[in-house]
Amino acid sequence: MAILVTQQTKVLVQGITGKEGSKTTLQMKNYGTKVLAGVTPSKGGQEVHGVPVYNTIKEAMDNHPSINTSFIAVPNFAALGAIEEAIEASIPLINVLTEHIPIQDSAKAIAMAKKAGVKIVGPSSIGIISPGIGKVGSIGGDDPRGVFSKGNVGIISKSGGMASEVAWILTKNGIGQSTVIGIGGDILIGSTFADLMEEFEKDEQTKAVVIFGEIGGTYEEEAAELIRGKGKGSLREARERGKFTKPVVAFISGLFAETLPQGTKLGHAGAIVYGEKGSYKSKINALKEAGVALAKTPDEIPNLLK
Amino acid sequence: MLLYEFEGKLLFKNVGINVPVNRLISELVDQITIKPPLVLKAQVLSGKRAESGGIIRITNNDELITKLKELFGKTINGEKVDKVLVEEMVEYQDEYYLSFSYSTESRGPVLTFGKGGTGAEEKGAKTYPIDLAHLRGELELTSGAHLGGVIPEELVDTAQKLWEVFIKYNCELAEINPLVTSKDGKVYALDSKVILDDDADFRREEKFPERNLFGRPPTNAEIEARKIDEGDHRGTAGSVYWDLEGDIAVIAAGGGGSIVNIDALLAYGGKPANYTEHSGNPPREKLKKLTKIVLSRSGLKGCWFVGGTANFTDIYETLMGFVEGLRELNPKPNYPIVIRRGGPRDKEAFEALKEIGEKEGFDFHIFGRETPMTSTAKTMVDLAYGK
């Protein structure tokens, strides 16, 4: 069945007339994803790769009420407004490609989405692909077929490039994927490892999950808590979380960053450590204690899944 | 960007947070109109300034020059002192820690408050999530709903103003430690720690000069590399660039893959000469510029152009940009160049590279997606160090 992107997925592209929006629209269509409409203010009436463009989401929804997923590829200064518009239209899944969104805007968008019960994947997300079914976003580029293959391992990655690289390593070893998700490497993100593991837990197609994590923040620790069934209260809002029962293999990167002065920026915005919190050691220890198999290089992942 | 204390205090003053009377000096001066007792504070970015002798208290004017001289001659955690904040000493009763930052646990802003001084966290400062969905339009923190029961009455006004700094200037962190109440009942921010969100630079009028956390001024390469992306939003190259002490030049791809690879290089005993990354399908000119900057330094023993299996970065374009950069280098690189890449147009790129390497005499070692990315770290180390 896969998660997030299924046969029922019907996509709206916000920023469809831009370079990334237009390119990604074609990619999604070529992979068999149903892209019903696009939005760019004041460009209504045009077409992009055969997809009608509207000025507002409201107009798009009036004409295509079955839209259930929005893909956002607008410039960073316009991203909060675009996300707000999608939330107001009650689109249940919003995938945000845009990078370098101010953290304050991300915080506002995440708070709004939570209140409205809408799921955001991103910002800085490479996208979501359910091999053989469809994809939302840039993941896999023009031709995902060689790299991604259908199967029963879910991948959740902070890095877009590593989402592809890990999928390729699995495919090369004859292991297919149910759904591969780039959650983005920002400090604040709409969907965490734990959020998506909850979806994978319910998904019958998925038999195991690979997570690609990095130093910084507490999302890897949160995943470890979910696996240990200790999600309640201690992290995030105090809501009862189930336990994650499927095998998990993890790879954590960023040891290098800890050789630099604390607070030095590199890679993803979220890959930043102050004090002990979010350090490589903290993540490795938390995952180890939760019984997660840890890969020392990405190429060890297939063996750890067997 | 991490601000110096004096810069953070300017932002504090802008919103009306009380700071002691002070003056920033960058050379020895004998005319200080602020009356002793005074505090001389070295303006450096590293923490633990007090423990390293960066803060000197003086009680009479006779000591001023000698102590200033002492401070200007100092290097604190590798950073040379070239600015000193001379500040009136405030007699205080209570000290607190107060900050606003973002938490990955609540995925939103948090208020942290507790007893102040060094090691505030260990002293049990507590963190309180702020739900942005419940704030009014201008994101105002009300004394009742948000600060009530957490912040003592006399500090509420300062907390509201610090929140204003945090929101208005798009900070990742706005911290006062210590925040003190003086004997005459006034509230002062004795120190500031502010980290600005670089992604919000476009909406902030206040500009601050380039800096780094390495305790040295930015190198030419760092300054030049960061200019590559200016005014050109097609992918990124060089926006993150740090010169390091090693001898293997690294041109890595992807915000995540770059770190995976450099982790591997270090694990195999390689010493990176720099850290930089490119991603999001940058045009070839950007790679050309970046290549020239990365390889312009002397004493290199190898160059590693490495990345995973790209989603949409055009491998042919980026590698041709790399080649164009190589061609303009003088002297021409004679060290081994290890290339590992995968993604759109990779086969085309490798065929072209093979030919260019043979014709133009570059020592290319080319690997595609069938070769594990991190294993080429070992190849690079072996070739560079002649193992």
DSSP, total strands of chain A: 14
CATH architecture of the largest domain in chain A: 3-Layer(aba) Sandwich
How many beta-strand elements of chain B? 18
Kindly give the count of domains of chain B. Answer: 3
Shape of chain B: elongated
Low-confidence stretches of chain A: 232-239
Global outline of chain A? globular
Structure description:
The complex is a heterodimer of chains A (306) and B (387). Chain A is of the alpha/beta class. Chain A folds into two domains: 126 residues, NAD(P)-binding Rossmann-like Domain (Rossmann fold, 3-Layer(aba) Sandwich), CATH 3.40.50.720; 161 residues, Rossmann fold, CATH 3.40.50. Helices cover 30% and strands 21% of the residues of chain A. In chain A, the strands form two sheets. In chain A, strands 3-4-2-1-5-6-7 form a seven-stranded mixed sheet, sandwiched between helices. In chain A, strands 9-8-11-10-12-13-14 form a seven-stranded mixed sheet, with helices on both faces. In chain A, helix 3 runs parallel beside helix 4. About 3% of the residues of chain A have low confidence. Chain B has 387 residues and is of the alpha+beta class. In chain B, helix 8 packs parallel to helix 9. Chain B has three domains: 68 residues, ATP-grasp fold, A domain (Dna Ligase, domain 1, 2-Layer Sandwich); 112 residues, 2-Layer Sandwich (D-amino Acid Aminotransferase, Chain A, domain 1); 165 residues, 3-Layer(aba) Sandwich (Rossmann fold), CATH 3.40.50. Chain B is built from ten helices and 18 strands.
